[in-house]
Write a structure and sequence with these properties.
The structure holds three protein chains of three kinds.
Chain A (H helix, E strand, L loop, with lengths): L2 H9 L9 H10 L5 H30 L14 H12 L1 H12 L3 H32 L6 H34 L3 H28 L5
Helix pairs in contact in A: 3-7, 3-8, 4-6, 4-8, 5-6, 5-8, 6-7, 7-8
Chain B lengths: L6 H14 L4 H6 L4 H29 L10 H36 L8 H23 L24 H29 L12 H33 L12 H35 L6 H14 L15 H13 L1 H17 L6 H22 L3 H7 L3 H31 L5 H27 L16 H31 L41 H13 L9 E5 L6 E6 L6 H17 L3 H20 L5
Helix pairs in contact in B: 3-4, 3-5, 3-16, 4-5, 4-6, 4-7, 4-8, 4-14, 5-6, 5-18, 6-7, 6-18, 7-8, 7-9, 8-9, 8-11, 8-12, 8-14, 9-11, 12-14, 12-15, 14-15, 15-16, 18-19
Chain C lengths: L1 H26 L13 H30 L14 E8 L2 E5 L6 E3 L1 E5 L4 E7 L4 E4 L7 E3 L5 E5 L5 E7 L11 E7 L1 H12 L8 H12 L29 E2 L4 E2 L2 H9 L1 H4 L12 H12 L3
Parallel strand pairs in C: 1-5, 4-10
Antiparallel strand pairs in C: 1-2, 2-3, 5-8, 6-7, 6-9, 9-10, 11-12
The chains are: A mainly alpha, B mainly alpha, C alpha+beta.
């Protein structure tokens, strides 16, 4: 180990000791690499992206093989509402990105409010999507065709990830308000923001796939 | 419990000993987050599953010892050969390599005190145990999966397999996959961030490169399997039609998804074995690995290229020639990085001064079997040839040579090699060598004749065969070989068990090893290293100056990092010291979270969907509680 | 097969070479470095390049060119125009349905083809995935629901060739064999004509009783005998069952004793098979055997 390193090891911040906004900014200033928790979220998202890649590839695989897609008796999907809903969801990346930035600056209150804003929009999105999902289920069923099977499975998988994202946001919010902004929850905020960026990007791919027969 | 270098140093580690002391008794094992204990849990559990898979293999070989035998009915045989495959792959080889060897050794080799996410590490183990018990409950209750370890539809669909046998498979593999995904994430972050300061990527042991490659492969391959099983269960339980040709679905979708996972899986199986080989060879030939960077690159290339070849499992399906030819070409390209590694090992052995002690013998056996298995694999990349021998015993020979000969032999060699480190005792060398020769001969006699049987036309997965085909003698020979092989394996276990109680004390470094774990005590203290090691090269143990410098620092009480349960974190590429992390000491949450997941899968199996949802809620609450009390200094 | 022998030869050379190097390592275990060259890392690296990249690239390219560019044409599905006739094979759990399009001929578990004729075999399945494999005449071809896979079958010499299912398909996968009989074109044509004809009616008393029993017991609910009221296609077509050399998907020889054993207790011969134990008395079995044995 070099002299520099040994010297550094004498006085570096123990990041877990950062229990306040101020201490958090100190840690952020000294850190040269992304924290472990951030990497963990990145890798988890790699797996989820692969999962969705597989689902979407299955959609096009079945589409490619089929003579009529959707099969006879199922109307091609309506375009407007799903696109609008997805557009609204994608905008929540802005408050989440801001939340991460405020958290890195050690500012607890703005962080929490940005998360609240994002959560409200996300919940509205989810409600709208549940209604659209139910409407679709009345038109055709997954147990009637492979088209229905893959259509509803992709949408359900996406909505499940939205639900998970909302729960993650709530958990982070809970700790921010009750425990304060510590280094641990800074990583939490950054992780959840990253999660939402990826889910939003996937939402775009999902809606384009879902609407592909009509586009 | 540690024996440190000098009496002067003892007082410095006192505090470390107290902070890192394991909780005693059963509760200590249940709530442990220590990578070494988790590694041992994985070791014994996967060894038990190895035994189960072995019994299944012996049942198969005994049933096939002669034509028209009646030991197993076709229904029982189908369950036995399916469980043999599922057990050996998902419940033995992967958990043994990644869970046992990886968990125990990677943090030690990188000079860290634990994995990046110790509680998630424990969770991975408990989920693995849960998934194993889940699937074995099927066998015990007489409803084991019975359409082969790759479970083709429509045979595995509700129509042709109406009981819940396949549901144990579908749910069980999703369950098992969660453990492996979590483990993969853990290894990658650990290797990226927790290497001792100074261990830049080009100074990391090849063993860790293998595990890095394996982890990325697991991360990107498992989703395909999970999706395939999800579709299977949706078809079976809710009447979906992913795989129904009559409704716009496609049975080949299953095959594609399965093999997109399945082929990387076989590289996931073998890469850790490569890692073990590259640890044992330098130690026993007293020489650095020839062309280390190329070998490291080759390990990663194998994992990467493994994603592009899956259709070679489907050459008889009836795809267009262009498709099959492309995948055959890709399959042949993978030979190159394997060949590079193979000849690097052989050249290293040739140019070193090898001592053919037990661990190296196992690696020699591995090399021999890997060559044969690799060659038979090359032959089936010749599509016209494959279209005659696929689904025959030729393929059974090929994959047993590469999986048993080439993946398991290093595991057995590694068990001998690291036994002194883990237990502090030496095994009996003479019995070790005998166990090798027995196992080697048994393996050869069991699996080599299968090449011939395949070419003679014996198909695979048959519960019996007629007399008069000319297959009888070879089958008899194979079954005898299997018993010899079993004897060899039993001898290994006997050697290690007896040596545990009666072996000579081993000391820190009985073999002159090249990696860091040999610098600490045998067994290592819970905190692994009192002083975070100084690193100047990829062969840390052979840098005597660094090791002495560390001892002097320990005597002076410098660099212990012991304000709490702590380990340093570094930057990813150059391992520049970055911060100090606090590690969680014990936690009850991993086992109970795994239990709630088990509850969920059990309820799904029983079609109690509302209760399953309840278990999901419980599991989420547990995850919430887990993060509630943060790890502090 | 020639390809196999070349590959085996090359493999043996590679294997002996590598093991030879290991043997050399054992002999020279006391001295470090290479023989002759000594400790030369650059030579070591060149050895790795040569054996790990250089030689494999050459050998594998040759293998690829020979097998996957040149030879593969012989195993590709034949251009239909290049074949003289088509046979439909439909796999079932655990028997083979064989049809000759353009004729009324339907049989089971036995395919006849004329020699020196390119035959286009079109395969599919009625249930799960099976694989048609007649090793001496053709490559393996999977039979997949929703797909019609084609394979070329060509026999240069007359004879009986064995085949079997080669994709695990359930309990009796081990006992799903078939026979391919290659005959002279004239013999084939007369066989095909007799196959296409409805059942020859039988006159013996035992056979008449057997026929009655066949129609009234459960037999007719699964098996077809063209020219009678038995029209079900769940199990194999039995119109000319007596002309076949084997029974139960090439499992047992076709003689009265085996046929009787099969009808009495199919589960004893093929446990898990779809044909149930019918609970017939010995007399009834013998009558049915007499009837079926008259169906040439």
């Amino acid at each position: 180990m070099s002299e520099q390193t040994r010297a550094a090891m004498q006085g570096v911040t123990r990041s877990m000791a950062a229990q306040s906004g101020e201490a958090v900014t100190e840690v952020v200033r000294h850190q040269r690499a992304q924290p472990s928790g951030w990497w963990g979220m990145v890798l988890f998202l790699c797996a989820e992206v692969t999962l969705f890649g597989t689902l979407l590839a299955t959609y096009f695989y079945l589409d490619f093989d089929a003579s009529r897609w959707p099969p006879a008796g199922i109307a091609p999907p309506k375009v407007v509402l799903p696109l609008v809903a997805t557009g609204v969801l994608v905008t929540t990346s802005i408050p989440m990105a801001l939340a991460a930035r405020f958290a890195r600056a050690g500012r607890r209150s703005p962080t929490a409010w940005m998360i609240v804003l994002a959560l409200v929009v996300q919940c509205c999105y989810l409600a709208a999507q549940v209604l659209l999902f139910r409407h679709d289920l009345l038109q055709f069923k997954p147990s009637q065709s492979a088209y229905g099977s893959i259509y509803f499975t992709i949408l359900a998988a996406h909505h499940a990830h939205v639900v998970l994202g909302i729960l993650l946001g709530l958990a982070v919010l809970w700790h921010l308000t009750l425990r304060g902004l510590t280094n641990y929850w800074l990583i939490g905020v950054r992780g959840v923001a990253l999660y939402w960026h990826v889910v939003n990007a996937l939402a775009v791919l999902v809606v384009l796939t879902q609407l592909s027969p009509s586009l | 419990m540690a024996t440190v270098v000098s009496p002067r140093a003892e007082r410095h580690v006192d505090r470390l000993e107290r902070i890192w002391a394991e909780r005693p008794g059963l509760i200590g094992w249940l709530t442990t987050t220590d990578h070494k204990r988790i590694g041992l849990l994985y070791f014994f559990t996967s060894l038990a599953f190895f035994g189960a898979g072995g019994v299944e293999a012996l049942l198969i070989r005994t049933q096939l010892i002669g034509p028209n035998q009646h030991l197993l009915s076709p229904q029982a045989y189908d369950e036995v050969f399916t469980m043999h495959g599922v057990t050996m792959i998902f419940l033995f080889v992967i958990p043994m390599t990644t869970g046992a060897f990886g968990n125990y050794l990677v943090p030690l080799m990188i000079g860290s005190r634990d994995m990046a996410f110790p509680r998630m590490n424990a969770l991975s183990y408990w989920i693995f145990l849960g998934s194993g018990l889940f699937m074995y409950y099927a066998l015990v209750s007489g409803h084991a999966p019975n359409s082969g370890w790759f479970d083709y539809v429509p045979l595995a669909s509700k129509q042709y397999d109406p009981g819940n046998n396949i549901d144990f498979y579908g749910y069980g593999l999703i369950f098992n996959g969660i453990a492996s995904t979590a483990a993969a994430i853990n290894f990658i972050v650990t290797i990226f961030k927790l290497r001792a300061p100074g261990m830049s990527l080009n100074r990391m042991p090849l063993f860790c490169y293998a595990f890095l490659a394996v982890s990325f492969a697991l991360l990107f391959a498992l989703p395909a399997l999970s999706v395939a099983c999800l579709f299977l269960e949706l078809d079976r339980q809710l009447g979906f039609h992913f795989y129904d040709a009559g409704f716009g679905g496609d049975p080949l979708l299953w095959q594609n998804l399965f093999w997109i996972f399945g082929h990387p899986e076989v590289y996931i199986i073998i890469l850790p074995a490569f890692g073990i080989a590259t640890s044992i060879i330098p130690t026993f030939v007293h020489r650095r690995m020839v062309w280390f960077p190329l070998v490291a690159l080759a390990e990663i290339m194998v994992a990467f290229l493994g994603f592009g070849v899956w259709v070679h499992h489907m050459f008889a399906v009836g795809f267009a020639t262009l498709t099959t030819v492309y995948f055959a070409a890709a399959s042949l390209i993978i030979v190159i990085p394997s060949g590079i590694q193979l000849f690097a090992w052989i050249t290293t052995i040739l140019t070193g001064t090898p001592e053919f002690e037990t661990p190296l013998l196992w690696i020699i056996g591995f090399i021999i079997f890997f060559i044969i298995g690799g060659l038979s694999g090359i032959t089936v990349a010749a599509i016209p040839f494959d279209q005659q021998v696929t689904d025959s015993y030729y393929i059974v020979a090929h994959f047993h040579f590469v999986i048993f000969g080439a993946a398991v032999f290093p595991i057995l060699g590694g068990m001998y090699y690291w036994f002194p480190k883990v237990t502090g005792r030496m095994y009996h060398e003479g019995v070790g060598k005998l166990s090798f020769y027995l196992t080697f001969v048994g393996t050869f006699v069991t699996f080599f004749p299968m090449h011939i049987l395949g070419i003679m036309g014996m198909p695979r997965r048959v519960y019996t065969y007629p007399s008069g085909m000319g297959w009888t003698f070879l089958n008899l020979l194979q079954s005898i070989g299997a018993y010899v092989l079993t004897a060899g394996l039993v001898l290994i276990v006997a050697n290690l068990v007896v040596s545990y109680f009666r072996g000579e004390p081993a000391g820190n470094d009985p073999f002159g090893g090249d990696t860091l774990e040999w610098s600490t005590t045998s067994p290592p203290p819970p905190y692994n290293y009192p002083v975070i090691p100084t690193i100047s090269s990829a062969y840390a143990m052979w840098d005597k100056e660094d090791r002495e410098r560390d001892n002097r620092r320990l005597d002076r009480g410098e660099g212990l990092i012991q304000l709490g349960h702590e380990t340093p974190a570094s930057t990813v590429q150059d391992a520049e010291y970055d911060e100090i992390l606090a590690m969680p000491p014990h936690s009850p949450w991993p086992p109970v979270t795994a239990l709630s997941l088990l509850g969920m899968f059990a309820m799904l199996l029983l079609h109690h969907y509302a209760i399953a949802a309840g278990f999901v809620v419980v599991g989420l609450l547990m995850l919430f509680a887990w993060h509630d009390k943060e790890v502090s200094v | 097969m020639l390809l196999w022998w070349w590959m085996l030869g090359a493999s043996v050379i590679v294997f002996l070479g590598a093991v030879g190097m290991l043997g050399l390592a054992w002999f020279r275990r006391r001295s470090a470095g290479l023989p002759i060259f000594g400790e030369r890392e650059d030579i070591n690296q060149r050895l790795v390049l040569l054996f790990g990249i250089g030689i494999p690239t050459v050998v594998l390219t040759v293998l690829f060119a020979v097998s996957n560019i040149y030879l593969i044409g012989q195993t590709a599905p034949p251009a239909v125009a290049s074949t003289s006739m088509t046979i439909d094979v439909i796999a079932h759990q655990w028997w083979w349905e064989v049809r000759y399009p353009g004729t009324q001929a339907v049989t089971a578990n036995e395919i006849h083809i004329p020699i020196t004729t390119r035959v286009n075999v079109v395969g599919t399945t009625a249930d799960v995935i099976h694989d048609l494999w007649v090793p001496q005449l053709a490559r393996k071809i999977d039979l997949v629901p929703g797909r019609k896979n084609r394979v070329l079958m060509y026999a240069s010499r007359s004879g009986t060739y064995g085949g079997q299912c080669a994709e695990f398909c359930g309990f009796q996968h081990a006992h799903m064999g078939l026979r391919v009989v290659a005959q002279s074109p004239a013999a084939f044509r007369s066989w095909l004509t007799s196959m296409a004809a409805p059942a020859t009616s039988s006159t013996g008393a035992g056979a008449q009783a057997g026929r009655q029993l066949f129609m009234s017991a459960q037999c007719a609910s699964c098996h077809q005998i063209r020219g009678t009221s038995a029209r079900a296609t769940v199990g194999p077509d039995l119109t000319h069952v007596a002309s076949r050399s084997t029974l139960a998907a090439a499992e047992i020889p076709n003689d009265p004793a085996h046929l009787a054993a099969w009808i009495s207790n199919p589960q004893a011969i093929k446990p898990g098979d779809r044909m149930p134990d019918l609970g017939l008395s010995r007399t009834q079995v013998n009558e049915i055997v007499a009837y079926l044995d008259s169906l040439h």
